[in-house]
Amino acid sequence: MNVKWGSLGGVAVVGFGVTVGVVVIFALGVRALAARDERKAAGSDGTALTVGAGACFAVCAAAVAYGLYLIIPQFH
After folding, report:
1. Which residue from 22, 4, 30, 28 is spatially nearest to 61, judged by alpha carbons?
2. Which of 29, 30, 43, 45 is most solvent-facing, going by the fewest CB within 10 Å?
3. Rounded to an integer, what distance in angstroms lies between the CA atom of residue 20 and that of residue 28?
């Protein structure tokens, strides 16, 4: 058996990058929800922050769904 170490390293780097990206986007969504609560406590409207948080969570859900699509062969 011959292992292509360059390809394995590329997959590892891309996997790590996507993982970090999804975690950062999720953290931004959580931070937007916290900022929304702070603005509501101050008497302001937090609609834009709610929409931003929803968009962040939607991107994370799409990344998870795409990963499941790639892993489960019945979806192809």
Report:
1. 22
2. 43
3. 12
The pLDDT tens digits of the residues spanning 34-66 come to 999 999 999 999 999 999 999 999 999 999 999
Residue 33: partners with Cβ closer than 8 Å, 6 or more residues away:
49, 50, 53
The burial class, CB within 10 Å (0-12 / 13-18 / 19+), for 17 is exposed
| Residue 20 to residue 7: CA distance in whole angstroms | 20
Long-range contact pairs involving 37-41 (C-beta distance under 8 Å, separation at least 24): none
